[in-house]
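Notebook p. 47: complex prediction with pyridoxal-5'-phosphate.
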Amino acid sequence: PIYLDGFATQPLAPEARTAMLSAWDRPGNAGSPNAAGEQAAALVATGRAAVASLIGASPGEITFTSGATEANNLALAGVLRAVHRACHSRSRVIVSAVEHKSVLETADTLRSEGIEVIRCPVDKTGRLNVAAFAELADERLLLASIMLVNNETGAIQPIAEAAALAHRVGGLFHTDAAQAIGKIPVNVVELDVDYLSISSHKCYGPMGIGALYRASSAPAPHPLLHGGRQERGLRPGTEPVALIAGFGAAAAVAAAELARADHREDVLLESFLECLSHRQLRHHRVTDGHPTVPGGIALSIPGVDGDALCVALAKTVAISTGSACTSGQLTTSHVLAAMGFSAKSAKQVVRVYFNRYLDEVHVVLAADEFVAAAERCRLATGELRQ
Ligand code: PLP
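Predicted complex, structure tokens below:
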């Protein structure tokens, strides 16, 4: 099948695969005082430097985790436990209504620890309501967590603006950048965030590895796990050397690809949308003109059930509805609901992403299959109604 499910996960970069195979071929624990251990530690250091460089951080500000889910948990639960104990006058956490569940559910678990959790609304294009955020961000603010790019719509959020509002009142700021890494340039200094979560597999690296950036000036979170001294005690456990090497290689390629600035992924997406129009398939971008990541979009196809379309395309084109973790459940996407979609209209939405390994031939083939499958779904729905 033609792979357009890049919001769920990206294909593995060949460079990441090569780096992992070579690391797996060499035994060595990065904590061991022998030559093999030193080699492993060197691979970890190289990977850390590449990941840091991709986001404009220094290597000491990177803590490897199992992925963005864990990084989000560490940023919210870990930071709040560390800071709230020391400063009881601040107990407010602001998250946006369209965050990934790993942020929303972690924040919700903190209510029992005396934290006030507020969900900031977004507008109908999925953009953070900055005026509402500014009103909520007062001297009670402890931490705000707003994602850089949404995983269901690709919408890019005004993070530098929100971070400045949080800092103005002395609050801390975290952003979940899992969907931004490798898709748009991300610079922690320009964004001026205190914490930032990333995931390797959304950036053409292996699954099972990610990282939390913590600015050297920001408070250290309480570790979620206890044990060894790896990752300066913040994330104990033997470092997965090969995964880190793969993540580092993917990050290095991503940096080079972002420097291309030829917007190839976007050219492919636009060409796909043009093909849909030529073939007379009605479709709307759910973000309605709001900026999204190059190559990625959520589309509403009137009269076509998104889940049925994914199934109808299963053998030829890989796409998905909503986030992969919630598809299969019969609940309306919380992201689309927050944007004002009814349960019925949210069911007509699918997301596509054109990755760097695709070309115009894939675009035309994918569009042909997409239009034919959408027509089959529409006919089937019509027949069911009769
Ligand atoms: N945050 C966002 C925005 C995501 O899209 C995802 C992946 O679905 C995650 C966090 C979780 O990332 P990981 O799979 O690395 O735990």
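Notes: The pocket of pyridoxal-5'-phosphate is lined by residues 67-69, 100, 102, 147, 151, 176, 178-179, 199, 210, 323 (CB under 6 Å). The chain has a mean pLDDT of 95.
Next step: compare against the earlier run before touching the bench.
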